[in-house]
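ASSEMBLY PREDICTION REQUEST
Request ID: AP-0331
Submitted by: J.K., bench scientist
Number of chains: two
Total residues: 606
Priority: normal
Notes: Please return the full assembly, not individual chains.
Input sequences:
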Amino acid sequence: MIVKLLSGDQPRSAILTAILLVILICLAGAPFIFDGVRPLDTAARICIFILLVASYDLLLGYGGIVSFAHTMFFGLGAYGVALASIHMGRGFDALLVGSISGALAAVVLALLIGLFSLRVRAIFFAMITLAVASAVAVLVSQFSAITGGEDGLTYKIPRVLTSANRMGEFMGTKISGKILNYYLVFTATLILFLLLLRIVNSPFGRVLQAIRENDFRAEAIGYRVVWYRTAATCLSAATAALAGSLFAIWLRYVGPDTTLSFEIMLDILLMVVIGGMGTMYGAVIGATLFILAQTYLQNLMGSASEATSALPLIPDLLDPDRWLMWLGILFILSVYFFPTGIVGRLRESRRA
Amino acid sequence: MTETLLQTDALTVRFGGHVAVDAVSCSFKAGELTAIVGPNGAGKTTYFNLISGQIPASAGNVTLLGKDITRLGVAERCRRGLGRAFQLTNLFPNLSVLENLRLVIQSRAEKGFQLFSMADSHVELTNAAMEILERVRLASQKEQLVSELSHGDQRKLEVALLIGLDPKVYMFDEPTAGMSVDEAPVILDLIAEIKADTSRTVLLVEHKLDVIRSLADRIIVLHNGALAADGPPAEVMASAVVQEAYMGKELDHV
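STATUS: Completed
Returned structure:
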């Protein structure tokens, strides 16, 4: 059963299994294990980014395709939900219509970009995605009448999913709609992640790996490489859009900074690389580590800075404003010591 | 009357002013093994590239099983029955031996676009792949990554991939290049087995005369991109043009 759920692709390392289980348990029980609003928000972000990064891994790690438009697809899903909720009024139908049309728009755009540029060379695709993503980001901030511009959009989601919906108490925790909302995010992430895991272990996934390894030979044994690459791009785009929809449902706000910015694109790249490309589980570990660091590193540094205030220089280095520098150092170290990512490293140590 | 499986009509390619393959017309019949010989730079591999579609032709046609395939892509030609092994080993290095072969069988079975089934659940593909690995004596290395294989074993796998495709037209480009004396016979035996199937045709680019003598039914000679001779081995090897253009020098070595 578990083997089937994981599509025969087990973690293949005891430590990795343990880490994944801890993450799964923490995310599954987040509302009950941790107190307060912030941890729950962090947990939801982790879920959404796991999905987003996993969908990127399908493209980069399995297909060997570099895309810079992943946040664009993420944004399409998010804006889909936002626009549908504004124009159709709050309701589950709006969420559904928004998510589906966001995902469809992502697929159509991915298909166009893919057929247009994947014929030529992988590097050309990377440049086209960069251009299209920048253009979309500019359009979104310019067409403020529709998109809210730089301010973004706020809207209402069904009352059932908000903290106004109180449903009593369970195990000492007040159950509100916010928790329901969290479980919507968590469940959707879990299902879509397992689906992605299935796709990379399907016959289609094997062809993608073959193309990554040697596209010339893949073509010579009868696979039309362009179609496979395009299909992978579409699948990845659709999943990213769904992750965006979940984000929009969770935040009740969309804006260029939270969904479309190039910074998020870089974050995704970092998460994939830190976790380990072409492993899927790398997405789980990369996203979890990164979001935790993003959320708590500043606090941690703040207290460390205070604790060392008597010493020279060190408190300055540990100032919370320097957190990005430390994240950068962590990234360089992790790439240097684990070139195959954390998951790759854990699997290697088992082999040796 | 044996069937013509592959035919090239005035097939030509120019790179700038240089004519690499010059109006080569030739047909290849079922049950026949044709050796293609010629000095380095004569256009043998380029001729292969034109037939299998890696390079578009400047002029002329390629006909496979009676259909014009000159404008088709590499994958499409493969799906119609044209299989090619490469001169420089050209495999999927970070996948296992079994997976390399399974991919070929999967391509033939048209299962590449199955998204939601587990690849490992297609037992029939794995079994077919294992059968061929037994034939080329690689079964014991099935879990190894291709990048870890010896050169000789990689050459064997290269041939195995072609057998897995089960094409109508087999194209081998120096299949035993760089192989040791005791490894090469395995490959040659496999080619002899393929040749024994009278519904297939085999094209073989080869330098080694002993290989040509033992396998070829026919030799065509390319010289400066043009067809210089075409006929049964004994006749071609004796002809003056070949002696002069190619064989003369080579024969001294043998």
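REVIEWER COMMENTS: The beta strands of chain B are 4-15, 18-29, 32-37, 59-64, 67-68, 82-84, 169-173, 201-205, 218-223, 226-231.
SIGN-OFF: pending second reviewer
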